[in-house]
Fold these 3 entries.
Entry 1:
Amino acid sequence: MDINAIAEKFTDFYYRTFDTDRHGLAPLYKDESMLTWEGQQILGVQRIIEKLTTLPFAKVQHQVSTVDAQPSVPNTANLIVSVTGFLLVDGDSNPIRYSQAFHLVSADGGYYVYNDIFRLNYG
C-alpha cells in the first residue's frame, strides 16, 4: 500500500468534488464521522453535509500546496492526511490560506473520513 498515492488520489477527488458539488461528498462520511470546522464540532454524515453545503459562499476553488500522509494504526490500512493550500472564494483574487487534516479509515474496499479538521490560517 502506497499511502502517499492514496492520499493524493483522495485529496484530488475530495477537493474536485467540494469545488463542484459538495453534496457529492456524502459517501465519504459515515454516521460516526466528525468534522471540526473552525472549532465547531459536527457529528454524522447528515450534519456534516448540511454544514458544507450551507457555507457562506457560492463558488470555491482549492489550490493544494502540500499533502502529507502517515499510517495511523499499526497493521491497518488507516491513515492520516494533512493538507495545506489556498482557497479562492466567489471569484475573489485574494487567496486565503487553509489547513485540513483527515483521518481515513479503510472499509468495504475503500476509505471513509472518520475525522476531518479544517482551519483557515490568517496572519
Entry 2:
Amino acid sequence: MYVAVMTYLGFGIVTLFGYFRDFLRAVGVEKRSIAQEREEQKDFVPLYQDFENFYTRNLYMRVRDSWNRPVCSLPGPVFDLMERVSDDYNWTFRLTGRTIHNAINMGSYNYLGFAENNVDFLKTVAAKTQQYGVGVCSTRQEIGTLSIHEELEKLVANFLKVESAMTFGMGFAVNSMNIPAIVGKGGLILSDELNHTSLILGARLSGATIRVFKHNNMHSLEKMLKEAVCSGQPRSHRPWKKILIMVEGIYSMEGSVLRLPEIIALKKKYKAYLYVDEAHSIGAVGPSGRGVTELFNVNPSDVDVMMGTFTKSFGAAGGYIAGKKDLVDYLRGHSHSAVYASAMSPPVTEQIIRAMKCIMGNDGSTEGIRRVRQLAENTRYFRARLKEMGFIIYGNDDSPVVPILLYMPGKVVAFAREMLERKIGVVVVGFPATPITEARARFCLSASHTRDMLNQVLHHMNEVGDNLCLKFSRLKYSSCPDLCDDTDLDLGS
C-alpha cells in the first residue's frame, strides 16, 4: 500500500508542476518548445491531443534521456553507446563525441546470440549476398520469390513440425496484415488483455467483434467462450462464423508464458480456433528451442495458426505463419502482406536459414543446442539471484524476459541513469506502456552472456537496489548473496 500511495503521489506532484509550467508558458515566462496549433486553425479539429501533449512535454521530457540512446556497434552481449547531453532539459540532444565502450547489453532480444559478426559463422550469408544482392525489388507473387525463400519456408515447417509455412519481411505486419485475412465481420476474436499492439491492430482491421479476457485467466476465457457459444452474435443471436482465440507464447512486458495445454482444452471444448504469437518464445524456450508447443509437450497441430518472428532468437528480420497446408495456401492469395509487401532480403533470408540449421543441428555441430541450453541456464540463474536479493520480478522461470518492478516514476529514470553510469544498458518502461503503479526495468537474457557478465550485472543491481530502495520483496534474503560462482554448466556434451 505504501508503494502504491507514493507512486500515485509522485505522479500527482509531477502533474501539478506540469500545470504550473504550462501557466508559465502561457504568460511568456517559459519558452514553448513543443509543436502547437496555429492561431488561425484554432477552430479546426485539434491536430495534437491535449492530454497526450501535456504528458509528453511535462512528464516524458523529464526522463527522455533514458530512451532512444544511439548504439554504434553490434548489439551483442556488450555494445558501444554514443554519449549525448542536453542543454535544454531533454528537448534536444547533442553528441559529445565520446563513446561508452563495452557496456553490458541487457536489453536486446538477442536470445540465442545470433546477432553476431563472427566471420566463420557468416560465410554463407556473405556468399548469398554476392549471389542474389541485398534486395529483391518485387513482391513474392510477381518475380520476388527466390529459391532460398522456398528453402526457408520448408525449413520453418520442418522445424515447427507442421505441414506448411510462409515467411514475411516484417514481423509486425505478420499479425496486422494476416489476421484480417483469417477472420472478418461476423467473427469473434477473444484476445488476451496484454497482447502486443500488432495483434490488437490486426484484430481491429479485421472488422470482427473483439472481446478481451483477463491475462492468462482460464476462467475469464471460458466464461467468454461459453457466452459466445450460447448467445451467439448480438441482437440476431446467430452463431458466430468463427471464434478465434489470440494469445502470445511469452508476453514481452510480463515475462509470463501462456497456459497452452489449458487453452487447447478450452479451444477443443468450444470448437474455437487458436492463434499463438511466438515472437519471443520461438528459439528461446523448449528443450530444442521449438517454442511453447515443445515446452508443454503438446502436438503442434493443436495450434491452428502458429506465428513467430525472426527478429529475436534468429538475429534477423521478418516473421512467419505456419500450420496446415490449406491455411498457408489460402494466405498466399489473401494476405495483404504476401500480395503487396516486398519479398524478404536475400542476406536476411540466409541468416535465418543458417541460424535455424544451427539450432536443429543440420550444420553438423552442437552449437545450436548448446546456445539453447545456455540461455535456459542463464535465465534460471539470473532470476534466482534477483529473487535472493529481494527484488520483485514477474514472469515464468523459463522466460528469458525478466521484468523487475520499480513502481515509482522517479526511480525509473534514476535506475536507468545509474546503471548506465556502471556501463550496463537496460530498458525501463513506465506508464502508459504499463499500469501506472507497475513501472519496471525489463532485462532480456542471452546465450551469449557469460557467467562473469551476469555476476557483474547482479553485483551492480545489488548496490543500486540498496541505494534506490528497490528491494520491495517481503521474503527473507541474504544481504550479501554469493555472486562469485565461477562454475559454468558444461553444455558441450
Entry 3:
Amino acid sequence: MGYKQELKRELSLLQNFGVSFSIISIITGIPSLFSYGLNAGGPAVMVWGWIIVSCTTMLVGLAMAEICSAHPTSGGPYYWAAMLAKPESAPLASWITGWFNLLGQVAVTTGISFACANFLSTVAEFGTSFVPTPETTIGIYAAVLISQGLINTFGVHLLKYLNNVSVWWHSLGTTSIVIAILARAPKHQSANFVFRTFIDGTGVNGNEGWGTRASHAYVCVIGILMAQYTLTGYDASAHMTEETHNAAMAGSVGIIMAIGVSAVLGWFLILGLLFSIQNLETTISSPTGEPVAQIFLDTVGEKGAIVLMILVIGAMYFCGTFSVTSNSRMMFAFARDGGIPGHKFFRKVDAQRGNPVRTVWLACTLSFCLALPSLGSSVAFSAATSIATIGLYISYGIPIALRVIYRERFVRGPFHLGAFSMPVAIGAVTWISFIAIAFILPQANPVNSQTLNYSIVCVGIVILYSVGFWLISARKWFSGPIRQISAEEMGVSKILESEVSDDKRAKSS
C-alpha cells in the first residue's frame, strides 16, 4: 500500500473479526437505545426494523469488504476514497471522507462509553440511596474514558487477549441474558404484542407525538436508529488491517462476519427482552431510567439484575475500549497523511509500545467533549448516536459511490463479489443516502433547546470546516494519502520534505 510497517502485525482473522464484533456490540447498542426504540415505534418497529436494517447493512458491509480487500490500510474509507477517485479529485475525496469518518469515530466512542457510564449509574441505584445526576454521570464517563485510554496506552499488548475474551463475553453474555429473563419471567408478552404493537411516544411533556403531527411512517423512519446505530463501527476491521496477518482477506471477512453474527444475536436479544416485559408502562417510565434494567428487576429480582447488568456493563466497557483502539488508528493514519491539525505531533508512534499513544488520548478527549451537551439536553445521547451513525455511514458511502462512478479504476483484491458487485454497491449507496437524511430529523416533539437533535449542528460544522478549510488552505497542500515507501525509494520523504519547507518558511519570516 506504500506505507512503512509501523504498527505491529499480530492479529489473526478471528481477532480482526473480534474488534468489529466488539465495537458493534449488540449488548451495548440495543440496551442503551431500548427506551428510544420503545417510544419511537415500539416493538413492531424494533423487531421488523432490525431485520430490514440488518439486510441493508450487509449490503454496505459487502461493498466495503470488496474495497477493503483491494486497499487494506488503517486509513480505511478515506484512503479508499483517494484510490477510487480520479487523480485530480482524489485529495478532496480523501479529505471529506476522512473528516466524516473522524466525526463518526469520535461520536461512536462517545455513545458507547457514555452508555457504560449511564448503566454504571443505574446499577449503583440498586439497593442504595444513590441518585445519579447529569454531573455525576459525566464524571463517571470521564473515569471510564481515562481507564480505556490507559489500557490503550500501557496495555496494548493485552488487547488481542482482551479481544478474545470480548468475543466470548458478547456471545455467551447475550445468550445468558436471554435465557435468564425468559426462564424467570413471571409471564410473557404475546406474539401479537412483540410483532405488531406500534407505539408513538415521541411527544414530550404531554404534547402530541410525531405520529399525530406528521405520520406513523415518520416515526418508523426515526425509530430504526436503534438498529442502525447498533450495526455500526465494523470499519474497525479495515482500520486494524495493518496489524492483521493476511490483511487483504482477513479485513474483508472480519467485516462480513461481524455484521452477520451481530444481526442474528441482536434479533435474538430484542425478542428476548420484548417477550419478558412485565408491565409496558412501568418499563417505559422506569424509575431506574433504563427499561432494560427494569426488565431485569421484574424477571430475575435485584440480585439477579445486578449480575445481568454486570454482563451488559462489561460488554459496553470492552466495546468502548476497542472503539478507542479503532478511533486512534484512524486518527493516526489521517495524521500520517497530514489530514488533521497538529498532524506532525499526532502522527508519532510510541517507539517502545508500538502504538499511536497521542491519538489514543486525542480520541478520548474529543469523545468527552462531545458528551458535554448531556449536561443540558434531554436527547443528547440519542443525538450522539445519530452523529455516529451519520458520520460513519457517509464515510462508508463516499468510497462505495466512487467505486460505482469510476468502476474502471477499481482493481479488485482477493475478495470480490463478481457480477453482484455493482448492484450491491448501488443498493448500499441508496440506503446510506436515506439514513443520512433520516437521522438528522427531529426525534421529539415539540422541538426546543431541550429536545433539539443537535446531530445536524455537528454534521453541519464538519461540512463547513472540511469544505471551508479545503477552499481556504488545505487544497494547496493536502495531497491525500502519502506513499512513504515510494517517496523514500526516490530519496525523498514527502513528510520530511514538508517539514523542511515549514522550517525554511519559519526562518525566512
